[in-house]
């Protein structure tokens, strides 16, 4: 932590030195002008260096996340292979076919999630398993996510991010995790998002205060939200067209 903080301060050390020198310099007006110009130049240099440092740290963090997700995916597929090999050795063809069909459906959903022309939307959905590590996520995406306007897909990304942030905060507060079912049905320019969850132990319900807060946030996109029966989920409908 200290090293990271020092990295952010280091680009601005020349500016700090020049500002201190400005206060104690004995050269009068000429010194004031020179130190002022030097401070401006060093400040610009510091900002540029800090920007490069941020980009480098973000690149490293993104690479680390990709490596972690790849490791998780590899581990998952090894588990699937072991299950399939087990069914094959036990000659349980019915279970083998059912399990393979489940994998095919999962691959189909992932393909549909990746079809968006707005890359951040596809990326955020494909790595949702990593974001919600303690949840078992089930997708229902009947067709590829693609709208007539890229702006609509960007709006969908922002809308989903609001919902996912709510789930993250609620899950941490309740300390309860289980199965998360997400259905995403599109009818350009409309999208219908249905999210419901099943917990192993603790009840996870949308309180009326949470519902009001979330609805206020969703008003930014003129989205309509309704809680499901039992208050263990939500359904959101939104028109992603610019005209509405």
From TrEMBL:
Domain of life, source organism: Bacteria
SUPFAM superfamilies in UniProt: Sporulation response regulatory protein Spo0B (SSF55890)
* Entry annotated with the keyword Transmembrane: yes
Signal sequence, start to end: none
Q: Which organism is it from?
A: Thermoactinomyces daqus
**Name assigned to this protein:** Spo0B domain-containing protein
**Residue ranges annotated for the SpoOB alpha-helical domain, each copy included:** 69-114
Task: Return the Pfam families for the record.
Answer: SPOB_a
- Molecular function in Gene Ontology: phosphorelay sensor kinase activity
- Record keywords: Kinase included? yes
Name the keywords, alphabetized. Answer: Kinase, Membrane, Phosphoprotein, Transferase, Transmembrane, Transmembrane helix
Q: Where are the transmembrane segments?
A: 7-27, 33-53
